[in-house]
Design goal:
Helix content is about 0%, strand content about 40%. With about 90 residues, it is mainly β. It has a domain of about 55 residues. Strands 2-3-6-7-8 form a five-stranded antiparallel sheet, with no helix packed on it. A hairpin with a 3-residue loop joins strand 2 and strand 3.
Length: about 90
């Protein structure tokens, strides 16, 4: 059986080019609130959708993810803090 799960997500984040911390808070159509977490270290991001602070009976679509972000064609100029875009 396939079920479609719709979410409203707000994600506070703290990040630089080299690292990042994310805390997504999701509200589902079933009225549940999920709190997840992820960390970025360079091109690698690892996270979970639901930390399951309160053990739920059904954690539909809850899980983890691993992202490897590679941008081979992105040749941007790295700007310093004093450079202003034109």
């Amino acid at each position: 059986m396939t079920r479609e799960l719709n979410l409203l997500t707000i994600t506070p984040r703290w990040e630089t080019i080299a690292w990042g911390l994310y805390l997504p808070v999701q509200y589902t159509t079933q009225g549940r609130i999920w709190v997840g977490a992820s960390i970025k270290l360079g091109p690698l991001t690892l996270g979970v959708h639901n930390l399951a602070l309160k053990k739920a009976v059904n954690t539909l679509n809850g899980g983890s993810y691993l992202i490897l972000s590679v941008h081979p064609f992105n040749k941007r100029k790295i700007m310093s803090r004093l450079d202003c875009p034109e």
